[in-house]
Amino acid sequence: MRRATIVTASTVVGLAAVLGYRPHSASQVSLAAASTSASSTDTPSTDTAAPATDTSTSSTDTSSSGSGGGTSQAPAQPATPAPSSAPATRTATGQDVAINEGGRQYGDIQAKVTMRGSKITNVSITKLNVYDGRSGEIENYSVPQLMQQTIDAQSAQIDGVSGATYTSMAYEQSVQSAIDHINAGGQSA
Amino acid sequence: MMQRHVEHVMGTVVSLALRTDGMSAAEIACAVASACEVLDDADATFSTFKPNSELSRLRRGEVRIEQVSDEMNEIIDRCVTVLKASDGWFDAWSLPGGFDPTGIVKGWAADRALAALRDHDVPAAMVNAGGDIVAYGEPEPGRAWRMGVRDSEQRDILRAVVELNGALATSGTYERGEHIHRPKPVTAPSDWGVTALRSASVTGPELATADALATALFAAGPYGLQFIEDTPGYDAFIVDDSGTGWATAGFPAADA
Residue B83 above 90 pLDDT? Predict the structure, then answer.
């Protein structure tokens, strides 16, 4: 059963990875757009114009401040105001698609995609059913979600940062070498 | 009111952030001193760079396992628990030189330092031990602590922001060519396309566990997300070697 988990997850992940690698290809855009009008549900659809599962929100894209790595900065540079034509964030749920292999259906899968402009920022699996071939049971698996955000550290208003940097690692090495030196009986001037 | 204090201990920089509303200067100083004492004690007990620490003596066979301190016992127990939870990818017994719980001690000490602040009635606090973070309370009324996961390649970029009353630990190759210790070979099929990660971050209620799981996940590669999914209360975010970010379903990403 565990192997089935990995095989299925990798199939889904392969799909998501493809979406993640090529967000600008026409086929990806059509997957997100065209599928919204054809999501399979048992209840009859009452809206004709707008797809039932498409939500549109406009978001302001904060532009990162342009100081490109210099060590001296002008104080309190105001951020460039977001243009009024900032790309909108849209989320859509795709079709519930059968997973077929060798002429047999092994299950079905449905994905939800969030895009900002033409860039995919999130993919999540809203439904994944895989039939265990031997027992005939339907099992649900959790799969990893694509998270492709990059956020400017200065505008994110965070209280703390996780993850080392070259600087902090170098600092730690330097501190450790000093400690070792002292432990060995040496002293610095 | 927010006060910060920086302590150089356990071979790294530990930063404390305290919301100090309603506390006198003396009370704040007392709370900070108590937290720092916890960190110093952990350093004295577990530092492999201190020849006389209990861990160093244990590794040299100068202390019998039945004679170890309560703290050492607790760390050993936790290493066993995480060994199992991580499918063997966190293995404190797999490193040369003998038992080495370094991958869990920093987080464990930070949890205890945070508890000391709570015991001193600090309304909200965050401990950041060399990039592994644990926090409780509201830094300002109405909002949770916000923590960022730094990109491993560009220092001004974050790959994720979480809002969390709990812990966030990150393990990663923040330097090219860094040797990754793997207790066992990566044998999962490479349908993913890559087996290595640039960074692995784990969130959950305790930093000790998050710390160890992040270490395990980083060693295991993308398929390590499976044992994170199987560990209740803990979630993960990884950046794989192609630069693509992935998260488990419950990862507490903020709307950045």
Answer: yes
